Amino acid sequence: MLRCLIMVVLFALNAVIAVGAELKVGVSADYPPMAFKQEGRIMGIEADNATAVGSLLGLEMTLVDMPFVKLLPALQAGEIDVIMSGFSITAARKEQVIFTDSYMDIGQMGIVTTEKVGQFSQPWALRRSGVRIGVEPGTTGADYAENELKEGEIKFYADSQAAFTGLRSDEIDVYIHDAPTSWRLAATADNNDLISLYHSLTNEELAWAVRKDDERLAEQLDFALAKLKANGTLGYILNRWIPVTLEVR
Questions:
Q1: Same domain, 100 and 112
Q2: What is the pTM of this model?
């Protein structure tokens, strides 16, 4: 289905913009459903996004997996050409990269064990003194905790699975991460002892990022993204990997 949608766009274009034979795409493949590994292969929303963009621009998209905190330094060093890894637009990051147009709106959410859900049913509960908060370094969740939850005790985890272990072993009371982590949690049976609070703590936009001196590539990615939005391919990709619909009141 995805391939068919891409081919429709290709035939509709009068010309295909190409920037070269290969584009190195930085991803952190520990973040389902945005990017994760299955049987050694990188899959998820960003992997599909890269495939779709590569088809439109006539490029070979090579996915380069690395820890999230290394993505920005790798981009600046020229080791990768673009970050496509559930990357939130922030003022600080805008000073270092060029962002494309946004392709998805998300927010930070808290995840707790089912035993503690009653303690954190109200948003203000996170602001109590002594609440133990898990975050991933370099993320907007970490920024939020450090700036807004100053009465809490912050502990850093390398990825979501490590933080889930921290929740289960009572090292932390709540783990704060992007909404896709909560969506994935709701769709997997092996994490039924954990639950998202499903209250967005922040409002954020996800986009792809390129170096400051690579304006042409940013324009070409925006060109491709506009086509993917217009013909429904982006919507198909998001619906494919986010199978749950949540209504929060």
A1: no
A2: 0.75
pLDDT digits (tens, 9 = 90+) for 89-116: 999 999 999 999 999 998 999 999 999 9
Quickly list DSSP for the chain.
-HHHHHHHHHHH-S------SEEEEEE-SEETTTEEEETTEEESHHHHHHHHHHHHHT-EEEEEE--HHHHHHHHHTTS-SEE-SSPBP-HHHHTTEEE----EEE-EEEEEEGGGGGGGSSGGGGGSTT-EEEE-TTSHHHHHHHHH-TTSEEEE-SSHHHHHHHHHTTS-SEEEEEHHHHHHHHT-GGGTTEEE----S--EEE--EEETT-HHHHHHHHHHHHHHHHTTHHHHHHHHH--------
Structural domain contains residue 217: yes
Residue 222 in domain: yes
pLDDT tens digits, 130-183: 999 999 999 999 999 999 999 999 999 999 999 999 999 999 999 999 888 888
Question: Could you tell me if 74 and 46 lie in one domain?
Answer: yes
